[in-house]
Specification:
The complex is a heterodimer. Chain A has eleven helices and no strands. By secondary structure, chain A is an all-alpha fold. Chain A has one domain. The longest helix of chain A is centred in the first third of the chain and has 31 residues. The radius of gyration of chain A is 22 Å and the shape is elongated. The chains are: A mainly alpha, B alpha/beta. Chain A: GO terms for molecular function: ABC-type transporter activity.
Chain lengths: 265, 312
């Protein structure tokens, strides 16, 4: 046995007397959401993906007249950039973070604490929403400086759509990030991001895509979110049934699948 | 504090766990008494981590009965987890998280946590408080992982290879810590393939190989099971002729040159045997150096039981 005198020097008797118990739920949720939000905002690659690329596109497409656009350019660009921002953080960022968190044993580490499993998921959702809020504020302020005039009647709808988009993309991000090896998650998440940006109805409206593709795009979460955000923020229109159903559908199906397939390591 | 204080900390019987065709754990049984330290000792691939992960509720057993603090970890995880501290093999933390942030997060999950700052201090992580996890050294990561296991003031700790990658000072500290935990009534189940660690820390050692228990007992019982299995070792000039020594030693003693210049006498070593050996050395005109009488070490027991061939 170890020398008792040395032990007593460093650790007074009773120091480790068991006093187990679960922490308060609110405190656990706050601690986890705060940690995950801080990590997402501190990670250089994540910030590039979630803020810098959308910002560059917002400023670039608004000020450089390379692509022809109808009406005030910033009004046309902003809804699409917001859709991109939501996809970047909720899908690509979330998937990559989860893939590497699994690799580094974080999920297992947290699953071994008193943190209930549902709270583990809830903490990530709250963190994803916090990042989306930061994105909305930063992109909204920059767009306003560029002369953005969103339709006031559509602002509430736009918020609802952003929530739905975060839900749909977040569920798909967890589905991807929870299923594959970290490197594969990284590759797939970036490829999907790029494909959806170019051909998924975000950079280009479905109308300017080839006929067959245009139909498909309205059923993708990217196309549904970008088009309905445009309708809300440019025309002040309530979203139709289809985009809402598409976003809800992807979210529910992705979430249910993820609940079955997500692995701790 | 606990509804089932009478039940042992861990009770496992007939545990079987398969991965496809491979049987990782094959009918294993063991018992960790409350407030005691049990070392699960075995070579790589013996089934140590699988056994611990079944007890932690991460793996479901294929057969057998597992009770941890009187609860079934496979079905009662939510009630069990707040009472248990876990140090998984290879740690576990967000790659970008700062050491103090991680510990505070885990502390927030407990009702009466230890002070995270104090714990970082005693584990020598005060200077690494703001260092991202991925930039910590292997030993620092291990210490943070240990801190995360301890911070919730559990009744039972699972430590999977707690000192892997640690320098001697840090190992010493972990040994002290385990001693203090035991003194304060915390039960500890630890895995190791380090004999000195098992010998120094454990009240009870369970040696497993190929998923089965091959021996168990207190370190003393394991090493002195056979009084005729003592050893006398000494060093001298290599290649000495041992014919006369063999003739002079009692029948139950064997002598051989284990390595060039390293001589080993095995059997019941009494003062007469020691005297015979030194007399023979004087006769040969050599000085017996590093002469020592020892009972078998836990390492000898371990190697005898699990074989001496190298494992992957």
């Amino acid at each position: 046995m170890t020398a008792p005198d040395a032990t007593q020097d460093r650790f007074a008797p009773g120091t480790f007397r068991p006093a187990p118990g679960r922490g308060r739920l609110g405190r656990m949720l706050a601690a986890q959401a705060r940690t995950e939000t801080a990590l997402a905002l501190r990670n250089g690659e994540q910030v590039l993906l979630t803020l810098l690329i959308p910002l560059a596109l917002l400023v670039g497409l608004t000020t450089l007249r390379i692509v022809p656009m109808p009406g005030p350019r910033v009004d046309f660009v902003t809804p699409r950039v917001l859709a991109l921002a939501v996809m970047s953080s909720a899908f690509t960022g979330q998937a990559i973070a989860l893939g590497f968190d699994r690799r580094y044993g974080v999920i297992k580490r947290l699953a071994a604490t008193a943190l209930p499993r549902w709270l583990l998921a809830a903490g990530r959702v709250v963190a994803a929403l916090a990042v989306v809020v930061v994105q909305l504020v930063v992109l909204g302020v920059v767009a306003a400086l560029l002369g953005w005039h969103p339709a006031a009647a559509g602002l509430g709808w736009a918020l609802l759509l952003v929530l739905l988009g975060t839900f749909a993309f977040g569920a798909l991000g967890v589905l991807l990030g929870g299923a594959l090896r970290a490197e594969l998650v990284l590759a797939v998440a970036n490829v999907v991001w790029f494909v959806l940006l170019l051909a998924g109805g975000i950079a280009l409206p479905p109308g300017s895509l080839p006929a067959g593709l245009a139909e498909v795009v309205t059923f993708l979460p990217s196309g549904a979110l970008a088009e309905s955000l445009r309708a809300a923020l440019v025309d002040g229109a309530a979203p139709g049934v289809q985009p809402v159903a598409v976003l809800l559908g992807w979210g529910v199906v992705g979430g249910l699948l993820a609940a079955r397939t997500t692995r701790l390591t | 504090m606990s509804p089932n204080l009478d039940s042992p900390a861990v009770e496992v019987s007939g545990l079987v766990k398969r991965y496809g065709d491979t049987v990782a754990v094959d009918g294993l049984g063991m018992r960790v008494a409350r407030g005691s330290v049990l070392a699960l000792l075995g070579p790589n691939g013996a089934g140590k981590t699988t056994t611990v992960e079944v007890c932690e509720g991460f793996l479901r057993p294929d057969a057998g009965r597992v009770r941890v603090l009187g609860l079934d970890p496979a079905t009662d995880g939510a009630r069990l987890r707040p009472r248990v501290g876990v140090m998984p093999q290879g740690g576990g933390a967000y790659p970008g998280v700062r050491a103090a942030e991680m510990l505070r997060l885990v502390a927030a999950c407990a009702a009466n946590p230890l002070d995270p700052d104090w714990l970082l201090d005693v584990l020598g992580l005060a200077a690494a408080r703001r260092t991202p996890y991925k930039r910590l050294s292997g030993g620092q990561q291990q210490r943070l992982s240990l801190a995360c296991a301890l911070v919730g003031r559990p009744e039972l700790l699972f430590l999977d290879e707690p000192t892997a990658g640690m320098d001697p000072q840090a190992r010493r500290l972990v040994w002290e810590l385990v001693g203090a935990l035991r003194r304060d009534g915390v039960a500890v189940l630890l895995t190791t393939h380090l004999m000195d660690e098992a010998e120094a820390l454990a009240d009870h050692v369970v040696i497993i190989d190929h998923g089965r228990v091959v021996a168990e007992g207190t370190p003393h019982e394991l090493t002195s099971a056979d009084a005729d299995e003592q050893q006398l070792r000494f060093r001298a000039t290599p290649g000495l002729d041992m014919t006369l020594l063999r003739a002079a030693l009692p029948e139950h003693c064997q002598v051989h040159e284990a390595a060039p210049g390293a001589y080993l006498v095995q059997g019941r070593i009494d003062p007469q045997v020691v005297s015979t050996v030194t007399a023979w050395c004087a006769q040969q005109g050599v000085l017996a150096q590093e002469l020592q009488v020892a009972r078998r070490s836990l390492e000898d027991v371990f190697l005898d039981l699990t074989g001496r061939e190298l494992r992957s």
